[in-house]
Design a protein that fits this description.
Elements lengths: L1 H4 L13 H24 L1 H9 L6 H30 L2 H18 L8 H23 L2 H4 L5 H32 L4 H19 L1 H6 L15 H14 L5 H32 L3 H29 L1 H22 L3 H29 L5 H29 L4 H19 L4 H9 L6
Helix pairs in contact: 2-8, 2-9, 2-12, 3-4, 4-6, 4-11, 4-16, 5-6, 5-9, 6-16, 8-9, 8-13, 8-15, 12-13, 12-15, 12-16, 12-17, 13-14, 13-15, 14-15, 14-17, 16-17
Length: 441
């Protein structure tokens, strides 16, 4: 311990934070990204529509509605969970509970097959609820680990490692799917096994997080003696009472709802679009998502460094222009697969950059005593967008008798709205508001 105290402090980390601890925090992104990549983006979503829902016209809408229910549950619980985590310094124990829940219910997806619609819906709602709740909690550690000037960089490391984690999980699944198809196995035989692969990787890859990541927040003594629910709602009510003080944070959260609606549509429906609009088979879709994860990792790593120099707002604006260009290429011009591959990888590059920059900006706008609570609000905004975007896409594709290009074009308009709101945010004012939290004065 004496020797450790003589080690030079990294200019990127807060006092007492080591590189190993930052790595262990980022490893959670590596671990949980397999779930979103395999279950939500690449394999199970297309399996749900084509096999479980038997390619019915309502299949895509049923998938997006299932996700919407899970996101609604997160919206109802995230602010209160964040307030409770702040009051009792319980981010890490709550993170463990949500991790176990996501891993366990993902493994149970193994038992879904043709006709098991309601079982699949129930398990997707549960897995995605636990995943999203854990995502909020792990994000709340970021401002405890990184200095303000390095939030973008450290957030980028996490997102970049996360995309590599998704890449690893997907590669393992692709290897198995390739083997299974070579032995003439059907989708209802090999897709359930990929759910087990994903759950196991998640469980093992997150072990460093629980071994080395520290809970630095301190319990708030003045809240003791009240009922837990009352405490949590009291803190949330207090935050909303001072909403004008955090006007730039709140404005950014509204901006986030709109541009993330477009992003969440791409995440939730990428494989479905590839198969239904472009005629990809399962193996081609997996290769596509693999390449998109590589470009997303590059985007997160590269823009993590760029945004600390260029600024968070400019970085997000650049990525939104990229998203708009991608939607136009995908929905209007991509008649052949070459242009589609280009558009998909442009989406990957923008995905890594915009996700990383958004999380860093919330960290910059969050007062020290309310980090978990404000990241709960961040999670609320992302989950609201996850209802708005995919449901819009699913509804348009349903009423247009399966016109996926039209559905993609309409949901792409959310990027334009997000860009317009972004122009009204003052980053210096938002940072000062976080430093002068009225509850600490």
């Amino acid at each position: 311990m004496i020797q450790a105290n003589h080690k030079p402090q990294s200019p990127n980390y807060t006092e007492g934070v080591s590189g190993r601890e930052v790595w262990s925090w980022a490893m959670y992104d590596f671990a949980n990204s397999g779930y979103t990549t395999v279950v939500i983006t690449a394999i199970f979503n297309a399996y749900f529509v084509s096999v479980i829902a038997n390619n019915e016209d309502w299949g895509t809408f049923a998938w997006t509605a299932s996700l919407a229910v899970s996101y609604l549950l997160i919206i109802l619980t995230a602010p209160v969970m964040g307030a409770y985590a702040d009051a009792y310094a319980m981010k890490k124990p709550l993170l463990l509970i949500t991790t176990v829940g996501c891993v366990m219910f993902t493994a149970l997806l193994y038992f879904t097959g043709p006709g098991d619609l309601w079982l699949a819906i129930l398990l997707i709602v549960l897995t995605n609820f636990f995943f999203g709740s854990g995502e909020n909690l792990i994000a709340a550690f970021l401002p405890e680990l990184a200095k303000s000037k390095s939030l973008g960089k450290v957030s980028g490391w996490g997102w970049g490692l996360g995309y590599l984690g998704g890449l690893f999980s997907l590669a393992c699944c692709l290897a198995y799917v390739t083997w299974a198809q070579s032995h003439n196995h059907n989708a209802d035989q090999y897709v359930p096994v990929t759910m087990l692969i994903t759950a196991v990787i998640f469980a093992f890859a997150c072990i460093p997080t629980f071994l080395f990541l520290k809970e630095r927040a301190k319990p708030q003594p003045h809240l003791y003696g009240r009922r837990i629910a009352y405490e949590s709602f009291s803190r949330l009510k207090n935050t909303l009472k001072h909403v004008r003080h955090y006007q730039d944070l709140m404005r950014f959260l509204v901006c986030l709802v709109f541009y993330q609606a477009g992003i969440q549509t791409v995440i939730a429906l990428a494989a479905i679009y590839a198969q239904q609009a472009m005629g990809f088979d399962t193996q081609e879709t997996l290769v596509l998502i693999l390449l998109v994860n590589i470009t997303a990792a590059l985007g997160a790593f590269a823009f993590g460094y760029i945004q600390d120099k260029l600024g968070h707002l400019r970085t997000i604006a650049i990525t939104l222009f990229g998203w708009i260009m991608m939607i136009l290429l995908l929905a209007w011009f991509a008649e052949d697969r070459t242009l589609f591959w280009f558009a998909a990888n442009l989406a990957g590059l923008c995905l890594g950059a915009s996700q990383s920059a958004g999380r860093a900006l919330v960290g910059l706008f969050s007062p020290v005593s309310r980090r978990a609570e404000f990241f709960g609000l961040w999670g609320l905004a992302v989950k609201l967008s996850s209802i708005l975007g995919p449901l819009t896409y699913g509804w348009v594709s349903w009423i247009s008798a399966g016109d996926h290009r039209l559905a993609m074009l309409i949901t792409g308009s959310y990027f334009v709205i997000g860009l317009l709101i972004l122009m009204r945010i003052d980053i210096a004012r938002g940072e000062q508001a976080a430093l002068h939290d009225p509850e600490n004065h």
